[in-house]
Amino acid sequence: MDKVQIVEVGPRDGLQNEKEIVPVAAKIQLIDKLVAAGLKRVEASSFVNPRWIPQLADAEEVLQGIARPADVTFSALVPNLRGLERAAASGLREVALFMSASESHNQKNINKSIEDTFPVLQEVAREALTLGLRVRGYVSTVFGCPYEGSVPLENSRRVTNALLEMGVFEVSLGDTIGVATPKQVHEKIGALVKDVTTERLAGHFHDTRGTGLANVAAALDEGLRTFDSSIGGLGGCPYAPGAAGNISTEDLVYMLHGMDYETGVDLERLTEAGAFIQQQLGRELSSKVLKASLACKT
Ligand code: HMG
Ligand code: MG
């Protein structure tokens, strides 16, 4: 059976966008439940400026509290050397760099132009690799920007190549505001895989307009086998107005298993993690599989 890797980003992309700050103990329980469901790659938090993302200011405490089985890779976003220092002190073996394909989103999200971001991330990557860490990269706004609208493929290609040259092992292509359609996915990812092997690319689809899973199916056709998703469908970017959650991990796993892909995830235990965070947040989450599984239990 063909395998698909899932990168669970709920504790980071999901919780960074919640109005109320989720207590550390609940974050720790959530991550432990995600791991118990079989997820092997979990983005646990962000070591960004806590004034920009107060929701994740407790990254150190979360990483200190979670169980860390040897076969699970935990990662976190780092925007600069200060972030890397904090991540390394928390014992992380992987970090993720992030920037945008569009100038305005890059500026709003990390307070720098694209040109000024390259040397900063280059230094972070160099230092992280020297410390023996694995480095992942994100390119945001590949399929559209909340401030500029459509974004030329050339921008994404340039940023993807720059991140790969810095030594990242994988670049996650972000549909930050969930505007992509399968046609666009075929066009853009189909063009990028001409230069970059599919093993080094991942799909990161937000589901603002209901096209997230259809976009995964299109990206699978283009050869991608790594996808980011978020428990319950939590998520969004506070610096991308109108961005909704990522595709839900429950819905992604359900679809992949039904298409005969192996994920290593136990859907039953995964929905327990979804039900847990839904109860913590006190509102209904967008995951359809979670809704269906809870409806079947009543
Ligand atoms: P800045 O304010 O320009 O930073 O922010 P600075 O270097 O001028 O520093 C200002 C102060 O912040 C200093 O403290 C620093 O020490 C402190 P002061 O001297 O004033 O007391 N500081 C830090 N403290 C702790 N940890 C740090 C850190 N860095 C600086 N790492 C910066 C620039 C990039 C740091 C800021 O803009 C930032 O943190 N941005 C992050 C925004 C963010 O997290 N956005 C969401 C994640 S991206 C996303 O969701 C998209 C994605 O999911 C993919 C997709 O969907 O497309 C990945
Ligand atoms: Mg995102």
Automatic annotation (TrEMBL):
<dbReference type="Pfam" id="PF00682">
    <property type="entry name" value="HMGL-like"/>
</dbReference>
<keyword id="KW-0456">Lyase</keyword>
<dbReference type="InterPro" id="IPR013785">
    <property type="entry name" value="Aldolase_TIM"/>
</dbReference>
<dbReference type="GO" id="GO:0004419">
    <property type="term" value="F:hydroxymethylglutaryl-CoA lyase activity"/>
</dbReference>
<comment type="similarity">
    <text>Belongs to the HMG-CoA lyase family.</text>
</comment>
<keyword id="KW-0479">Metal-binding</keyword>
<dbReference type="GO" id="GO:0046951">
    <property type="term" value="P:ketone body biosynthetic process"/>
</dbReference>
<protein>
    <submittedName>
        <fullName>Hydroxymethylglutaryl-CoA lyase</fullName>
    </submittedName>
</protein>
<dbReference type="GO" id="GO:0046872">
    <property type="term" value="F:metal ion binding"/>
</dbReference>
<feature type="domain" description="Pyruvate carboxyltransferase">
    <location>
        <begin position="4"/>
        <end position="271"/>
    </location>
</feature>
<dbReference type="InterPro" id="IPR043594">
    <property type="entry name" value="HMGL"/>
</dbReference>
<dbReference type="InterPro" id="IPR000891">
    <property type="entry name" value="PYR_CT"/>
</dbReference>
<dbReference type="GO" id="GO:0006552">
    <property type="term" value="P:L-leucine catabolic process"/>
</dbReference>
